[in-house]
Protein backbone atom coordinates (compact mmCIF):
# COMPACT_ATOMS: atom_id res chain seq x y z
CA UNK A 1 0.00 0.00 0.00
CA UNK A 2 1.32 3.46 -0.95
CA UNK A 3 1.50 6.44 1.35
CA UNK A 4 -1.03 9.23 0.90
CA UNK A 5 0.38 12.68 0.24
CA UNK A 6 -2.77 14.27 1.72
CA UNK A 7 -5.49 12.79 3.92
CA UNK A 8 -9.17 13.30 3.08
CA UNK A 9 -9.30 15.94 5.85
CA UNK A 10 -6.30 17.81 4.38
CA UNK A 11 -7.83 17.67 0.89
CA UNK A 12 -11.06 19.10 2.29
CA UNK A 13 -9.12 21.87 4.04
CA UNK A 14 -7.31 22.80 0.79
CA UNK A 15 -10.56 22.82 -1.20
CA UNK A 16 -12.30 24.97 1.43
CA UNK A 17 -9.41 27.42 1.95
CA UNK A 18 -10.41 30.89 0.74
CA UNK A 19 -8.46 31.88 -2.36
CA UNK A 20 -8.44 35.38 -3.90
CA UNK A 21 -8.49 35.58 -7.69
CA UNK A 22 -6.37 38.41 -9.09
CA UNK A 23 -7.81 41.39 -10.94
CA UNK A 24 -8.57 40.63 -14.58
CA UNK A 25 -8.46 36.87 -13.91
CA UNK A 26 -10.99 36.40 -16.70
CA UNK A 27 -8.42 37.37 -19.38
CA UNK A 28 -6.09 34.60 -18.28
CA UNK A 29 -8.65 31.90 -17.57
CA UNK A 30 -11.67 32.38 -19.82
CA UNK A 31 -9.81 33.01 -23.07
CA UNK A 32 -8.77 29.57 -24.29
CA UNK A 33 -5.84 29.64 -26.69
CA UNK A 34 -4.97 26.98 -29.25
CA UNK A 35 -2.04 24.78 -28.29
CA UNK A 36 0.51 24.29 -31.08
CA UNK A 37 0.42 20.93 -32.84
CA UNK A 38 -2.54 19.68 -30.77
CA UNK A 39 -6.28 19.72 -31.16
CA UNK A 40 -6.81 21.50 -27.84
CA UNK A 41 -7.24 25.01 -26.51
CA UNK A 42 -5.86 25.81 -23.07
CA UNK A 43 -5.67 28.43 -20.36
CA UNK A 44 -4.35 28.58 -16.85
CA UNK A 45 -3.88 30.67 -13.76
CA UNK A 46 -1.87 30.35 -10.53
CA UNK A 47 -3.28 31.76 -7.29
CA UNK A 48 -1.27 32.01 -4.09
CA UNK A 49 -2.88 30.51 -1.02
CA UNK A 50 -1.95 30.32 2.67
CA UNK A 51 0.04 27.09 2.35
CA UNK A 52 1.12 27.09 -1.30
CA UNK A 53 -0.12 27.72 -4.82
CA UNK A 54 -3.38 26.69 -6.41
CA UNK A 55 -3.26 26.16 -10.13
CA UNK A 56 -6.31 26.28 -12.36
CA UNK A 57 -5.88 24.58 -15.73
CA UNK A 58 -8.44 24.45 -18.52
CA UNK A 59 -8.26 22.22 -21.59
CA UNK A 60 -10.89 21.96 -24.32
CA UNK A 61 -10.89 19.88 -27.51
CA UNK A 62 -11.24 22.11 -30.59
CA UNK A 63 -13.08 19.43 -32.60
CA UNK A 64 -15.48 18.40 -29.83
CA UNK A 65 -16.04 21.32 -27.39
CA UNK A 66 -17.86 19.16 -24.82
CA UNK A 67 -14.61 17.22 -24.29
CA UNK A 68 -12.90 19.38 -21.67
CA UNK A 69 -11.26 19.39 -18.24
CA UNK A 70 -11.10 22.10 -15.61
CA UNK A 71 -8.43 21.17 -13.06
CA UNK A 72 -7.90 22.64 -9.61
CA UNK A 73 -4.50 21.55 -8.31
CA UNK A 74 -2.28 22.41 -5.34
CA UNK A 75 1.47 22.79 -5.06
CA UNK A 76 3.18 23.14 -1.67
CA UNK A 77 5.56 26.05 -1.31
CA UNK A 78 9.03 25.11 -2.65
CA UNK A 79 7.77 21.92 -4.34
CA UNK A 80 7.37 21.15 -8.02
CA UNK A 81 4.74 18.42 -8.06
CA UNK A 82 1.08 19.27 -8.48
CA UNK A 83 -1.62 17.47 -6.52
CA UNK A 84 -4.99 17.44 -8.30
CA UNK A 85 -7.75 18.29 -5.85
CA UNK A 86 -10.65 18.36 -8.32
CA UNK A 87 -11.17 17.83 -12.03
CA UNK A 88 -14.41 18.91 -13.71
CA UNK A 89 -14.75 16.90 -16.92
CA UNK A 90 -16.99 17.19 -19.90
CA UNK A 91 -18.15 14.35 -22.14
CA UNK A 92 -15.16 12.38 -23.33
CA UNK A 93 -15.41 9.90 -26.22
CA UNK A 94 -15.26 7.04 -23.70
CA UNK A 95 -17.06 7.16 -20.33
CA UNK A 96 -15.14 7.43 -17.08
CA UNK A 97 -15.18 4.19 -15.08
CA UNK A 98 -14.87 4.14 -11.29
CA UNK A 99 -13.09 0.99 -10.17
CA UNK A 100 -13.87 0.51 -6.47
CA UNK A 101 -11.82 -1.93 -4.43
CA UNK A 102 -15.01 -3.75 -3.43
CA UNK A 103 -18.05 -3.95 -5.65
CA UNK A 104 -18.85 -3.51 -9.32
CA UNK A 105 -17.35 -0.94 -11.68
CA UNK A 106 -19.42 2.18 -12.29
CA UNK A 107 -19.55 3.86 -15.71
CA UNK A 108 -20.09 7.64 -15.95
CA UNK A 109 -20.85 8.58 -19.58
CA UNK A 110 -21.57 12.31 -19.13
CA UNK A 111 -20.25 15.26 -17.20
CA UNK A 112 -18.43 14.22 -14.05
CA UNK A 113 -16.26 15.62 -11.25
CA UNK A 114 -13.12 13.86 -10.09
CA UNK A 115 -12.15 14.26 -6.44
CA UNK A 116 -8.88 13.50 -4.69
CA UNK A 117 -9.23 10.76 -2.09
CA UNK A 118 -6.88 9.24 0.42
CA UNK A 119 -8.03 5.75 -0.64
CA UNK A 120 -7.00 6.28 -4.27
CA UNK A 121 -3.55 7.48 -3.18
CA UNK A 122 -3.04 4.55 -0.82
CA UNK A 123 -3.85 2.09 -3.60
CA UNK A 124 -1.40 3.65 -6.07
CA UNK A 125 -4.03 5.29 -8.28
CA UNK A 126 -4.17 8.90 -9.45
CA UNK A 127 -5.27 10.97 -6.47
CA UNK A 128 -8.41 12.08 -8.33
CA UNK A 129 -9.34 8.67 -9.76
CA UNK A 130 -12.80 8.67 -8.14
CA UNK A 131 -15.55 10.66 -9.91
CA UNK A 132 -19.23 11.45 -9.49
CA UNK A 133 -21.69 12.28 -12.26
CA UNK A 134 -23.13 15.80 -12.36
CA UNK A 135 -25.63 17.98 -14.17
CA UNK A 136 -24.37 21.17 -12.49
CA UNK A 137 -22.65 22.44 -15.65
CA UNK A 138 -23.27 22.21 -19.38
CA UNK A 139 -20.08 23.53 -21.00
CA UNK A 140 -16.49 24.48 -20.20
CA UNK A 141 -17.39 27.98 -18.97
CA UNK A 142 -20.11 26.85 -16.55
CA UNK A 143 -17.65 24.15 -15.35
CA UNK A 144 -15.04 26.86 -14.66
CA UNK A 145 -17.64 28.85 -12.74
CA UNK A 146 -18.65 25.81 -10.65
CA UNK A 147 -15.02 24.87 -9.98
CA UNK A 148 -14.25 28.38 -8.72
CA UNK A 149 -17.34 28.33 -6.50
CA UNK A 150 -16.82 24.78 -5.17
CA UNK A 151 -13.16 25.40 -4.38
CA UNK A 152 -13.69 28.78 -2.65
CA UNK A 153 -12.08 31.15 -5.13
CA UNK A 154 -13.19 34.71 -4.41
CA UNK A 155 -13.64 37.00 -7.39
CA UNK A 156 -12.21 40.50 -6.90
CA UNK A 157 -14.67 43.32 -6.31
CA UNK A 158 -15.90 45.10 -9.42
CA UNK A 159 -13.93 48.29 -9.87
CA UNK A 160 -16.06 51.44 -9.87
CA UNK A 161 -16.18 53.56 -13.00
CA UNK A 162 -13.16 55.89 -12.72
CA UNK A 163 -14.81 58.64 -14.76
CA UNK A 164 -18.57 58.49 -14.17
CA UNK A 165 -19.16 61.94 -15.70
CA UNK A 166 -17.79 60.89 -19.08
CA UNK A 167 -20.54 60.10 -21.56
CA UNK A 168 -21.03 56.50 -22.57
CA UNK A 169 -22.38 55.98 -26.05
CA UNK A 170 -23.45 52.37 -25.38
CA UNK A 171 -25.51 53.22 -22.31
CA UNK A 172 -27.20 56.14 -24.08
CA UNK A 173 -25.42 58.79 -22.01
CA UNK A 174 -23.66 60.45 -24.90
Secondary-structure blueprint:
Blueprint: H1 8-16, E1 19-20, H2 25-29, E2 33-34, E3 40-48, E4 52-61, E5 68-76, E6 83-89, E7 96-98, E8 106-108, E9 112-115, H3 118-122, E10 130-133, H4 140-150, E11 153-154
Parallel strand pairs: 1-11
Antiparallel strand pairs: 2-3, 3-4, 4-5, 5-6, 6-9, 7-8, 9-10
Description:
The chain is α+β, with helices and mostly antiparallel strands. The protein has one domain. The chain is built from four helices and eleven strands. It has helices at residues 8-16, 25-29, 118-122, 140-150, and strands at 19-20, 33-34, 40-48, 52-61, 68-76, 83-89, 96-98, 106-108, 112-115, 130-133, 153-154. The strands form three sheets. It has a seven-stranded antiparallel sheet. Strands 1-11 form a two-stranded parallel sheet. A hairpin with a 5-residue loop joins strand 2 (33-34) and strand 3 (40-48). It is globular, with a radius of gyration of 19 Å.
Question: Briefly, what is this?
Answer:
The chain is of the alpha+beta class and 174 residues long. The protein has helices at residues 8-16, 25-29, 118-122, 140-150, and strands spanning 19-20, 33-34, 40-48, 52-61, 68-76, 83-89, 96-98, 106-108, 112-115, 130-133, 153-154. The model has no long low-confidence stretch (mean pLDDT 89).
Amino acid sequence: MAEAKFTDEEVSHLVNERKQLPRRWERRLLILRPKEKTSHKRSGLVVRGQTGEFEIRVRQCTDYPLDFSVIIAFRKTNENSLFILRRYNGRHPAPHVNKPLNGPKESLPGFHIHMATEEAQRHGRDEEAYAVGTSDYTDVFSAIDLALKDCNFDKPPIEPDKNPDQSDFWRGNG
